[in-house]
Amino acid sequence: MRFAQIDRIVSLIPGDSVRAVKGLALSEEYLQDHFPRFPVMPGVLMLEAIFQASAYLARATDDFRYSMVKLVEARNVKFQGFVQPGDQLVVTAKWHSEQGQQVKLKVEGAIDGRTAVTGVILIERYNLADRGLASTATDQYLIREFKRKYRLLFNQLVSPEQVAANPASVPAN
Amino acid sequence: MRWFWIDRFTEFVSGKYARAVKCVSLTEEAVDEYCPGYPCLPSSVVIEGMAQTGGLLVGQLSDFRERVVLAKIGHCKFVDIPRPGQRLHFLAEITNLQPNGAYVVGRIERDGELFCEMELMFAFLDDDKFAKVEQFEPAAFLRMLRLLRLFDVAVTESGEPVRIPPHMLEAEKTLLASPIP
Amino acid sequence: MPNQDEVFAKVQEALVDALGVDEDEVQPEATMVGDLGAESIDFLDIIFKLEKAFGFQFKREDLYPEDILTNSQYVQGGRMTAEGLAALKQRMPFADLTRFEQNPAVQEFNNLLTVQDLCNYVAMKVGS
Is ipTM beyond 0.90? Predict the structure, then answer.
C-alpha cells in the first residue's frame, strides 16, 4: 500500500482509541536521503503514522460515513527518540473531544515502551460533495477504497475465539 | 521515493529567512493512491518541506557542521490540502537562535493566499549522546545543496553571496580526484 | 517591570505551551522534571518561550547546568564536590539548593528545579 505509514491496527475502540504499529525497514527508499549515514524515520512520518491511525479511528467511529479525513492542526508534537531500521513504532491515539466535524486527539508513539513522540492533533472529516469539491460518486469510491484498506490493516488470521474476546480487533465488514 | 519536499530555494538570506517552492504532481509516490479518486498530498510532508527550508537555513549558519534535527512542531495549522497542479511557496524565518537549537516560524502560500502557518523547533545533536552520528558525507551533502539551488540564491545580510563551506569543497575535490570504483 | 504575579502568569503560560501540561499542574512548588515531565529538549523550548514573553535573553545552561554536572572537577563518585556546589550556587543564585546540598547526588539534581525557581530566575534577569 503506497505511503501506508501503519502496518497493522492492533486495537480500535470506536469513539475512544486506536493502537497501531509501524515497523521501519532498511529497504524503505527515503532512508537513502534521511540520512545517508544515519537512517532514521523522519519525524513527520511518525506524525503521519499517528494521523493515519487517527483517521481510521474516525472512519470506524463514523461507520465510514465520510470520505475525507484531513489534518487541520498539530500542537506540541515533540520528538524524543529516533526510530531506526528494525524498530517498531507503536502509535496510540485517544479521542479527546469533538466539535462539529473536527476531532481532537491526544497522541503518542513509543519504541519498546519508550516514548518517542507525543502531541495533540485536530482532524476534520467531511464529504467532498457536501463542499462542492467533487461528485458523490468520488466520495463513494473513496469510502469503498478506505474500507478495503482498513480491512487489510488487521490481522487476517484471527480466530473466532479471539474475535469474541476482543471484538474491536476485526472490522465487521 | 526520495526525501525532497521542496523543489528549489528561490531566496536565502543567511541567518534571516529563506523561500522555497514545491510543485505538487500527480506522479508523486506520496500522492498516488493516498486518497484514491481525489489525489492530494499528505499534510505531513508539507510540514517536512518547511522543516527542510528552515533546517537548511539554520544549518547554513554553522557551515552545515551542526547536525540539525526537527525536535518539535510547536504549532501547525492547515487551511486546506494540497492538490496536483498546485505550487506551494514556503517562507521560513529564524526567530530565535541558541547554541543548541533554533526556532523557525513558517508560512506557506498557495495561489497568493495563506495555506499553512507553523512554528518549528530544531535541535543540534550534542556530542555526548550522538558523538558517532553523522547525517551526511560532506561531498554528498554539497551535491544535495546544489540540487536545491541553495548557493545560487544564498546571500549574506549585506548582500554578498554565501560561500560554499571549504570543508565541503575539499571533500568534493577529493571525491572527484579518486579512482572510479 | 512585571510584578511577581505577572511573572508567574507568563511563566505558567510558557510551561503550558512548551510542555503541553494543564494550567493547574503548574504550581510554584511543582518540579520541572519530576512533576511536569520536562526533558532536556523542553528546556530549550522553555527558554525560547520565556525570551518571547519577556523580551530578555535567557540561557539554557542557567537552568540546565549540564556543563557543571558533567565536569570531572566538580563531580566525584556521582556526587558534587564542595567546589562543584559553589559553581552551581554561582550559576543558579535564584534556585533553592539546600535540599540538594544535603544529598548532592548528580542524578538527583534534575529533579530539583521548581516552577518557583524558574520564576525567581526570570525575576532576577528582568530585574523586578
Answer: yes
